[in-house]
Recover the amino acids of this structure.
């Protein structure tokens, strides 16, 4: 798709029903993101979600997907220790969920790990820029790599990860100019989230794109639906119907 100049569309999913809808609507890649920690479990960060929980979400998603590529985030603490630990975690994801690839956050520090996973036959997607598993090192969710030195490091990390064998790279919350230069420099596709229009694809968290997380409004989110309003309206209509004995009707009864 990169060679053909066709942008790649990626969304997150964490459950069977959503995955079926998203896959059926023609998405290219479904990410079982560790953002499940935020939008499914209600945690403030992505750090608490466990490998077992990610595998459960991935199993549910895989059952709902017929055509899209399914990528699963390795969660915080399941791969940073050493490359052997990472391999054990990635093998569990692949074996127990049936997903097609894993995603890891980080640059040069995880290069040996990426190589080990790929040697074992596991496709790896990278993730640079704002890497939410490192939020306590960054201290803020602000745009990364605005400064020359961090931008240069990111470009080097992207090249190292490509050399290590990743098949695609997520670029999160970096200046558009950097998104463009990295995308041009790499042969593999970049998938941006807040990284500008020149990336080879775009990803959003589905809950943000569908308007379920109305209290989260960063500039890079575009809302394609207002499900929050729709669901609240539907639920209050149900409550009203039950309280006023309008539900169920004779037709809805046996
Ligand atoms: O976990 C996630 O949803 C992600 C995307 C933001 C890329 O990593």
């Amino acid at each position: 798709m990169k060679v053909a100049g066709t942008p790649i569309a990626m969304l997150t999913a964490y459950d069977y029903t959503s995955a079926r809808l998203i896959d059926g609507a023609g998405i290219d890649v479904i990410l079982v993101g560790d953002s499940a920690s935020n939008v499914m479990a209600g945690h403030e960060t992505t750090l608490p979600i466990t490998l077992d929980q990610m595998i459960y979400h991935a199993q549910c998603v895989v059952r709902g997907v017929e055509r899209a590529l399914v990528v699963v985030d390795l969660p915080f603490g399941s791969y940073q220790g050493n490359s052997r630990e990472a391999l054990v975690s990635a093998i569990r994801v692949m074996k127990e969920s049936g997903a097609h690839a894993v995603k890891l956050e980080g640059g040069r520090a995880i290069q040996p790990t990426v190589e080990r996973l790929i040697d074992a036959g596991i496709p790896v997607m990278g993730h640079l820029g704002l890497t939410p598993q490192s939020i306590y090192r960054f201290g803020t969710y602000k745009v990364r790599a605005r400064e020359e030195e961090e931008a240069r490091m990111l470009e080097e990390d992207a090249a190292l990860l490509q050399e290590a064998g990743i098949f695609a790279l997520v670029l999160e919350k970096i200046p558009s100019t950097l998104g463009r230069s990295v995308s041009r420099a790499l042969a593999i596709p970049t998938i941006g989230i807040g990284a500008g229009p020149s990336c080879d694809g775009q990803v959003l968290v589905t809950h943000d794109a569908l308007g379920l997380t109305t209290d989260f409004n960063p500039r890079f989110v575009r809302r394609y639906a207002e499900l929050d309003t729709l669901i609240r309206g539907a639920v209050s209509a149900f409550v009203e119907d039950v309280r006023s004995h309008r539900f169920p009707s004779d037709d809805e009864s046996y």
